[in-house]
Design goal:
Elements: H1 3-14, E1 24-29, E2 35-36, E3 44-45, E4 76-78, E5 87-91, E6 100-106, E7 112-116, E8 122-124, E9 129-137, E10 144-150, E11 156-163, E12 171-178, E13 183-193, E14 196-207, H2 220-229, E15 233-236, E16 266-267, E17 283-284, H3 290-299, E18 303-308, H4 328-342, H5 348-355, E19 366-369, H6 376-392, E20 397-401, H7 409-420, E21 425-432, H8 434-439, E22 453-461, H9 474-489, E23 494-499, E24 503-505, E25 516-518, E26 523-525, H10 527-536, E27 542-544, E28 546-548, E29 551-552, E30 559-566, E31 571-578, E32 584-591, E33 599-606, E34 625-630, E35 635-640, E36 644-651
Parallel strand pairs: 1-32, 3-15, 15-18, 18-19, 19-20, 20-21, 21-22, 22-23, 24-25
Antiparallel strand pairs: 1-28, 2-27, 4-7, 5-6, 6-14, 7-13, 8-13, 9-12, 9-14, 10-11, 10-13, 16-17, 25-26, 27-30, 28-29, 30-31, 31-36, 32-35, 33-34, 33-36
Length: 653
């Protein structure tokens, strides 16, 4: 988009046109749908950035529970003075994925104490139950573990203990207890009592009240916010996480499945990506692995959309490439993932899925090859993937990257190459200011209807970047709402769309704005979350033409609109964005042989102040207002608030 066009758009949306004083007239051709809309149109994108997984949705409270961080004692401190050699970090290379453990040598039986700081502290809630657990072996008779949960003032607010039994093999031990007070930044003290020796690992603390109460599972409130959106899909695990800073630190899905204690931890590539937001303690334990991603998607009724490394590391970092004659390993990872997701239990990877607790297939339908990769080196590797996947799994749609930007030389090259390859879905990304979103509403009007589908895989409107926590403003969200009318109007081309990033921890973020902000106890949605939720909970099956003076409503006098029909619910759904500082009167003439019921539901998201945002103190400062309304006949007349997104749901007989 040229600078002059963006400037003109900015001037357009800041004006106060005279038409606000008289009604505008729209026509809606309900009986003449222009195309079908994908059932998975609106989804969510998950990446372990901003402490989204460890310290976020993965409910583990202990940081560096198995001493596998680059600095084995990171997150821990000793509470007592002990003789040299009392605590030793042992590295046993025979232990798959988790070689380190803590060896305790205490012949004199002095009290030994360790403290774990958690992920920017530990969030615990009054009256709720928590489970402490660990692995141990070769424990001497009479040795015990006592744990105390402390609040911010170091007061004990929960305690429990368990005895260790002797044995040469690893055993598990656990105990459950309740805490008496809420603490946002608590700590865990681990006391080792009794004389003798022991080897300890996987020292862990979880709430028992997790999503679906799965032991050692996910944070209930964070998953619930996703479930409330009713997303059509979940894209995972990223994002730049897929690529890694180098190939050694790329995301390898096979290392994230199987027993938790055997999953191989790696450094998170966002650990040192931004100098202004260093996070040296940011690692990936993969307690949230591919099995858990698939399970979460299934839980909330969303399709799983995994993205795999294509043999290229992040081109903004090292840009490492695997040689073409060594690419087979990466392609095999894709084939094995399809087997893990869909294969019968008689197959190697299907059996692993079953052994983990899910004999039925996950019904994977699509797979991404590469993330934000570009250039001929990407096209060459993608072609190798495509050849094998099309041959062995033609039922799986392939999603391909169009690079980092929605325009420019890289985008133009990739767009042409991917279309020539007849790739199934092209993944387009755009992080841009509000003016870009407002001026790009018609972006897909002229896309080839017979070519590849489009996945708007990552997008967000940025008023400034990087921002502080919660600075997803109503201005940004409303510009996104306007842009989404263009996606919906072109839903025969744009098959999927997801905002990014999804989560941001207020004490551990690297990138902003984000859709949902969390701390150790709470989560709240930004104005952009409210917009995304309104779209994803008001989807349809058919695209309905909505025009003003014979044209799509795509910014004329700062108005934007789209319409869909839900054939299952038998409802016409109209979305209108008023990007003016004055109310607008509008008439919708519904051309149809069908009858409309007079009772309708009108949902409005509005605020006259474009700079407002939400916060933990005011999480619902901007929220939808839902009201039942009555319209007479097939001419709907209503007034639309300044700076608003309005959704009207009309029952059709």
């Amino acid at each position: 988009m040229k600078k002059i066009e963006i400037l003109l758009t900015a001037l357009m949306v800041s004006s106060t046109p005279l038409f606000a004083q008289s009604p505008v007239n729209f026509k809606v051709d309900l009986d003449r749908p222009s195309g079908k809309m994908s059932s998975d149109m609106w989804g969510v994108f998950f990446e372990d950035i901003n402490m989204g997984a460890d310290g976020g949705i993965y409910a583990e409270l202990v940081k560096n529970r198995s001493f596998e961080f680059d600095e084995p004692w990171m997150g821990w401190k000793k509470l007592t003075k002990e003789p040299e050699g009392t605590f030793l970090i042992v590295n046993n290379s025979k232990r798959k994925g988790n070689p380190r453990s803590l060896k305790v040598h205490n012949p004199n039986g002095i009290q030994l104490g360790l403290q774990n700081e958690g992920f920017r502290g530990m969030g615990v809630k009054k009256g709720e139950q928590y489970e402490f657990s660990l692995l141990f072996k070769q424990a001497s008779a009479g040795m015990r573990i006592r744990v105390d949960v402390l609040n911010e003032q170091d007061k004990v607010i929960g305690t429990s203990s368990l005895s260790l039994s002797n044995g040469s093999d690893w055993q598990s031990g656990s105990s459950k207890f309740k805490v008496s007070e809420t603490a946002a930044k608590g700590k865990l003290n681990v006391w080792i009592e009794g004389s003798g020796d022991a080897e300890l690992d996987m020292i862990s603390l979880f709430p028992t009240e997790t999503w679906k109460n799965r032991p050692k599972g996910l944070r209930k409130d964070m998953v619930q916010m996703l479930a409330d959106m009713k997303p059509g899909f979940i894209r995972f695990p990223g994002g730049c996480i897929v690529e890694g800073r180098d190939l050694a630190s790329r995301f390898q899905w096979k290392k994230t499945v199987g027993p938790i204690e055997e999953r191989e931890l790696i450094i998170n590539r966002w650990n040192t990506e931004f100098k202004h937001r260093p996070a040296p303690d940011y690692f990936q334990t993969f307690g949230l692995g591919f099995y858990e991603y698939f399970l979460m998607a299934e839980d909330i009724g969303a399709k799983a959309v995994p993205i795999l490394n294509c043999g290229m590391a992040c081109q903004f970092n090292t840009g490492e490439l695997v040689p073409m004659d060594e690419l087979d390993t990466y392609i095999q990872d894709a084939l094995d993932l399809i087997e893990f997701a869909n294969g019968p239990v008689t197959t190697t990877w299907g059996k692993l899925r079953s052994d983990m607790g899910h004999p039925a297939p996950f019904n994977l339908e699509m797979l991404g090859v590469g993330n934000e990769n570009w250039g001929p080196q990407y096209v060459e590797r993608l072609a190798a993937f495509k050849k094998v996947l099309n041959d062995k799994h033609p039922e799986i749609a392939i999603i391909a990257s169009s690079g980092t930007d929605p325009d420019g030389e890289r985008f133009a090259y990739l767009d042409e190459q991917l279309r020539d390859m007849k790739i199934d879905i092209i993944d387009e990304h755009y992080y841009r200011p509000p003016s870009w979103f407002l001026s790009s509403v018609s972006r897909y009007d002229d896309y080839d209807r017979k070519g590849p589908k489009v996945f708007a895989g990552e997008y967000a409107s940025h008023t400034t970047r990087p921002n502080g926590p919660g600075r997803s403003t109503w201005e940004a969200a409303l510009s996104e709402a306007a842009f989404l009318t263009g996606l919906e109007r072109n839903a025969d081309v744009v098959q999927m769309a997801s905002y990014a990033p999804l989560f941001g921890h207020v004490d551990g973020w690297q990138w902003s704005p984000d859709l949902i902000w969390v701390d150790n106890l709470q989560a709240y949605g930004t104005p952009s979350y409210q917009v995304q939720k309104l779209y994803s909970t008001h989807t349809g099956t058919d695209i309905i033409p909505l025009q003003w003076n014979g044209k799509a409503v795509a910014g004329q006098d700062s108005l934007f609109a789209s319409a869909v029909y839900d054939s299952k619910a038998k409802e016409l759904i109209i979305k209108l964005v008023n990007y003016n500082n004055k109310p607008v009167q509008a008439n919708f003439e519904i051309n149809s042989q069908k009858k409309l019921k007079p009772a309708a539901v009108k949902t409005t998201l509005a605020n006259p102040d474009l700079s407002i945002t939400t916060s933990f103190e005011e999480p619902l400062k901007i929220q939808p207002k839902v009201e039942e309304v009555k319209y007479n006949g097939k001419k709907i007349s209503d007034t639309f608030a300044p700076y608003s997104l309005t959704v009207i749901k009309l029952p059709v007989q």
